[in-house]
């Protein structure tokens, strides 16, 4: 049966902190007074008490109702007060928000031990308990708004005397809890990734737990907070919630154990029918229309809409999830998932990803236990009705065509198109697909992601360029695989036996010569799908050439950009900027920020040794790495340049060589710009797309024209500016 305890009525509003957890010499208000140290309240006058009673108000102890000078006591009506209630200045105004007007004052509400700021409007709140309400707040039509003495506001901590099993964990990346983390206000995607990644290092795991617990104390007695100018209306239950300034909450069903960060320049909103429990919202977040979120973190400027379900997951900055279901996932920034029939579970998506309708990514129902995972690099785009099996891993910018993929996949080719060819019972991979057939989309996404980055506090430097150290390193590895698979296919076609070294040597020769024999070979990949069916690699020569072009473009463009940004005019100046160490280091995607593996290893070593002992220090590391990134990226570009042109470092110091590189980059930029135009041109020449329009005028009114397409025009203008830059460099660089 329900355990209901009876207390004397005059005790309501008092004894907030259990005696066992009340420090010696402290009263139940000591933390409240730290949260709100204002001391300009005074007792009510007898005349004010008389007016309050005449207006239908009631208190079990009028001596514990304190007010500020300047209060218009007539603006309090039909309210019941319990415990110590402190009320700020109320003046005869009304507050207008979104064309709805609310009178300043307290009306038809039960208020238990709260601090209420200046010119607040509170009306029809059935139960308001233990909250600090700041100035100019509107709260109307709320069933229950309360805070317990052991509130944690969504953080993964426990209070004095509590058992470990009440701690909130986020079970990210894996349904079995093997990668779980303790959420905390201010957790970045990089923090979550570090905690989920290095599970075998118990020393690190203990350090991360200590970092988190040290951000908070285990004291009982904190009050909930509602920041200035926040509006809360027509909600049912709000319990143990801390709310920043300028938030807007309307029509929510249940909000419990949350931190809702919000600020004047990054307002957060929660809309109708939402139920959110055990979570943290960053500034600028939007949550609307029947969303269900449990055990979650929404990073700043992320959105949940239209009945989305987010459970045991971290959603990165500038991401949107609508309609669908996301479970046990760690999602880096700039993720898009908009369709009701898409499902994502037990996945690590490293940003700039997009989930199509019908995509089922991560169902564990096809394995013996709920312990499988999906890991995907930046730019993961599964197409319509894609179903994948755990465990699977994908290189950056992998697109997956519609299909039910029957076995685990390990796709090592970045910018590829993966297809399940049922009529031949084979897996088909087209490397460099984006460069060959959809340059418009890949380049447009770069500008789109950057434009959508609304973060104010950019603690992590997010990389939005498709060509960056992570994807470029994968291209280098993919080129070696293309050589190997091509050479192996040649040997097999001629019934010869060779080693991997033989295959790579032969494949490189054929590909460098653009040998027509390649088109006649059946080129198969290995260790790509966990099955016995063939894995065919298609368009190998075209992919090889495109990969090499993009390597040249990346390396040359990064050097050109560095030269122009730093006003470098000669080889001598440039060499002074290039780090001595330019080997091609391994890079890691740490929450959307690219960091060299050696720097990351040093961070982890410093954590183990106690040199870094807080999350703030880890965040400082991210910021320092962001400052180093331009020079590190330059060094990486130089290493790629030396490799792709097959020259030594001394050649780099030759102005003639660099000018030839500049000319190559200009040529490739023209090829890219033409590719953007041609990939978009298909939409205007496709007769099936045009058949719904009776006249060219109708089509143009709906689609616009190719010549006025904003992105196409922008790229053509950038091409002109880039040509001018290169021509000037070739003329003047010494």
From TrEMBL:
InterPro entries: DUF4954, DUF6819. It comes from the Bacteria. Residues 581-731 form the DUF6819 domain. Residues 41-485 form the DUF4954 domain. This is DUF4954 family protein. It comes from Niabella digestorum.
């Amino acid at each position: 049966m329900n355990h209901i305890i009876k207390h004397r009525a005059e005790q309501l509003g008092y004894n907030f902190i259990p005696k066992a957890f009340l420090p010696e010499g402290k009263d139940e208000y000591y933390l409240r007074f730290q949260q709100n140290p204002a001391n300009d309240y005074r007792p009510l006058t007898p005349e004010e008490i008389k007016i309050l009673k005449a207006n239908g108000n009631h208190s079990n102890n009028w001596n514990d109702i304190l007010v500020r000078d300047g209060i218009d006591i007539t603006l309090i009506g039909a309210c019941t007060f319990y415990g110590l209630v402190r009320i700020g200045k109320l003046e005869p105004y009304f507050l207008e928000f979104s064309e709805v007007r609310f009178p300043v004052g307290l009306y038809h509400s039960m208020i238990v031990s709260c601090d209420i700021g200046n010119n607040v409007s509170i009306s029809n709140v059935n139960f308001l308990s233990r909250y600090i309400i700041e100035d100019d707040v509107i709260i109307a039509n709320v069933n229950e708004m309360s805070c317990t003495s052991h509130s944690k506001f969504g953080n993964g901590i426990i209070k004095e005397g509590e058992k470990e099993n009440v701690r909130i964990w986020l079970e990210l990346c894996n349904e079995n809890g093997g990668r779980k983390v303790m959420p905390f206000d201010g957790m970045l995607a990089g923090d979550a990734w570090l905690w989920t990644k290095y599970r075998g290092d118990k020393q690190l795991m203990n350090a991360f737990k200590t970092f988190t617990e040290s951000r908070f104390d285990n004291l009982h007695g904190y009050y909930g907070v509602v920041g200035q100018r926040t509006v809360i209306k027509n909600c049912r239950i709000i319990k143990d919630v801390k709310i920043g300034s300028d938030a807007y909450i309307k029509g929510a069903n249940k909000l419990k154990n949350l931190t809702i960060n919000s600020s004047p320049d990054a307002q957060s909103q929660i809309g109708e029918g939402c139920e959110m429990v055990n979570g943290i919202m960053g500034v600028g977040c939007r949550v609307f229309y029947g969303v269900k979120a449990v055990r979650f973190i929404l990073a700043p400027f992320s959105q949940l809409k239209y009945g989305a379900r987010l459970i045991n997951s971290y959603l990165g900055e500038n991401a949107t999830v609508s309609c669908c279901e996301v479970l046990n996932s760690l999602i880096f920034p700039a993720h898009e998932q908009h369709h009701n029939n898409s499902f994502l579970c037990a996945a690590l998506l490293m940003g700039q990803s997009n989930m199509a309708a019908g995509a089922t990514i991560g169902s564990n129902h096809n394995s013996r236990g709920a312990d499988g995972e999906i890991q995907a690099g930046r730019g993961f785009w599964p197409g319509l009705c894609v179903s994948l099996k755990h465990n699977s891993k994908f290189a950056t910018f992998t697109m997956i065509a519609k299909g039910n993929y029957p076995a685990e996949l390990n796709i090592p080719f970045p910018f590829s198109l993966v297809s399940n060819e049922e009529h031949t019972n084979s897996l088909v991979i087209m490397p460099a697909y984006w460069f060959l057939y959809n340059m418009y989309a890949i380049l447009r996404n770069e500008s789109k992601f950057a434009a959508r980055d609304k973060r104010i506090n950019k603690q992590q430097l997010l990389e939005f360029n498709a060509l960056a150290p992570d994807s470029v390193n994968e291209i280098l590895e993919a080129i070696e695989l293309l050589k190997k698979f091509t050479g192996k296919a040649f040997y097999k076609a001629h019934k010869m036996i060779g080693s991997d070294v033989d295959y790579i040597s032969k494949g490189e020769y054929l590909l460098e010569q653009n040998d027509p024999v390649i088109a006649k070979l059946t080129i198969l990949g290995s260790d790509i799908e966990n099955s016995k069916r063939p894995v065919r690699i298609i368009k190998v020569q075209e992919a090889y050439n495109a990969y090499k072009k993009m390597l040249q473009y990346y390396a040359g463009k990064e050097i050109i950009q560095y030269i122009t940004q730093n006003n470098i005019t000669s080889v001598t100046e440039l060499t002074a900027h290039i780090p001595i160490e330019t080997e091609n280091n391994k890079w890691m995607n740490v929450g959307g920020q690219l960091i060299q593996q050696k720097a990351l290893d040093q961070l982890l070593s410093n954590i183990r040794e106690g040199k870094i002992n807080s999350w703030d220090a880890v965040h400082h590391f991210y910021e320092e790495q962001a400052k180093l990134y331009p020079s590190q990226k330059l060094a990486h570009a130089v290493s790629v340049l030396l490799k792709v042109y097959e020259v030594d470092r001394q050649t780099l110091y030759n102005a003639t060589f660099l000018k030839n590189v500049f000319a190559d980059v200009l040529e490739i930029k023209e090829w890219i710009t033409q590719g953007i135009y041609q990939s978009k041109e298909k939409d205007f020449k496709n007769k099936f797309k045009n058949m719904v329009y009776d006249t060219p005028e109708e089509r143009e009114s709906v689609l616009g024209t190719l010549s006025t397409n904003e992105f196409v025009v922008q790229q053509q203008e950038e091409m002109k500016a880039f040509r001018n830059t290169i021509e000037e460099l070739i003329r003047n660089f010494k």
